[in-house]
User: What shape does this take?
Amino acid sequence: MSYIKIKRNGAFECYDASDKFQFVIPKDKLEKYLSGTVRLEDGITLDEVLKAWPRVFDFIPYDFKEYLEELKKPSVKIEGDRSKIIFLELEQPINIIEFEDADTDNDLQLFPCFHGRANDVDMAYSLSFLPVNELKDLPIKINHANSAYLSIKKDGKLIHREVKPGKYDTNYDPSVLDFYYNIVYELTWHGSPKEREQKLKELNETIKDAREHPENLLTMDEFGKFKKKLNKENGTEENKDEKD
Assistant: This one.
């Protein structure tokens, strides 16, 4: 399979199926290669990926201009638990969902995820609320070997989850456009940088209030009863998967 490799110097190089270099794609011709399979040069950082060809963001339905401005800010070290992140990863896990309910069909879900990793086998870290300049110097990788997870549900509740290698294993080979789209989708999840900071402020205020006034919190059972009462008053049918 031929592919396009994004280099640390910002070049887009074309290779054939035998990994033999073919040519450097001129930047004014790149839009013709957006559907090509993408590979990354080892060690390439988020900063280098995002600066490689800014025009790619014209083909993505999310406003990334303010994030490119944030990218120009000095690099800042990530604080807290996510300071363990040593690289960024784009992957597409396979989630096999089996329902023990006789009247519910099993499901298979594929969903690209862009997150941080502490090492190759550790848990994934959400990038939610992290400014781009805190991520810019981290290497970025594509996990081409999909991870498969088996989830078993009963009465709408998850009762079992495990890694399930084997017959569901496939390769994940995103196109150039898919690669950039999934990065932008994750980084802009909370809107613009200003909207992101406002939502983070509101979240921190909610957490602070919950800690100072735990008597105002609802237990899960209380919340479930409140939700059922609200649905009944509004004449809204509950989704089966959401029932207790």
Observations:
- DSSP finds five helices and twelve strands in the chain.
- The longest strand covers residues 148-154.
- The chain has one domain: 3-192.
